[in-house]
Amino acid sequence: MTSAIALRLAVTLVVTALTFLGGFPTLGHAALFINEIMADPASDWDGDGAYQYRDDEWVEIINTGPEAVDLAGHGLRDAASTTPRLLLEGTLAPGQVLVLYGSDAVAWQQSSGATVAGFSLNNGGDVLELALFADQQVTVLDTVTYQDHEADDDRSCGRNADTGEWQLFDALNPHAGTQEPLGTGCAPSPGAGNICAPEVANEDLSLDSLKSRFR
């Protein structure tokens, strides 16, 4: 695993065993899920000092199971791709989340000889899959469909840590429309549990303050 990805492994203390059982769908023995997506970044989310749309997209995955998961062979792809946009390495401990940036996908694509396109998350809505690629077989572990309004500038969408309900985290770009999921006023939280509480939603948050909180 690259040091950049390893440094972004964060233990989510707010996610309890009860949350794992009640807040996430059950897919047999699968313990890995897509937890949050930033499909239309308008800021320097990967922290490299420069905004680049392709590189600053991000996807967060979570291990909701009671045991560590070997990430070898696991990858992310969108509905338009038959091959992974990024293959993972290392292990993910119980309750741990991993943020993967478009720049990580670009680095993997360059090193593996794949077409360099990042995650290629569509702003008008898309389908994202977390899958296991092994022995020329693809086993889809989790599928998330997000809509156009969930992919506006610096909005993320993700699972509520308590209920598993898909929510819109729009503190940096409020959604005043009636299309569901409705705006919550809560902030994107790369590397941390998706907690949406009134005291958080009512804060005047900037991107810099979010980065200092979650990194």
Write the layout of secondary structure elements.
Blueprint: H1 3-7, E1 9-11, H2 17-23, E2 32-38, H3 53-56, E3 58-63, E4 69-70, E5 74-78, E6 86-87, E7 91-92, E8 96-101, H4 102-112, E9 125-134, E10 137-147, E11 156-159, E12 166-169, H5 198-201, H6 207-214
Antiparallel strand pairs: 1-8, 2-3, 2-11, 3-8, 4-7, 5-6, 5-9, 9-10, 11-12
What does this protein look like?
- This protein is of the alpha+beta class and 215 residues long.
- It is 18% helix and 29% strand.
- A six-stranded antiparallel beta sheet has the order 1-8-3-2-11-12.
Radius of gyration: 16 Å
Write down the overall mean pLDDT.
83
**Sheet with the most strands: spatial strand order:** 1-8-3-2-11-12
SSE pattern, N- to C-terminal: HEHEHEEEEEEHEEEEHH
Keywords:
215 residues; 6 helices; 4-stranded antiparallel beta sheet; alpha+beta; disordered N terminus; 12 strands; 18% helix
Question: Quick gist of this model?
Answer:
The chain is α+β, with helices and mostly antiparallel strands and 215 residues long. The protein has helices at residues 3-7, 17-23, 53-56, 102-112, 198-201, 207-214, and strands at residues 9-11, 32-38, 58-63, 69-70, 74-78, 86-87, 91-92, 96-101, 125-134, 137-147, 156-159, 166-169. It contains 6 helices and 12 strands.
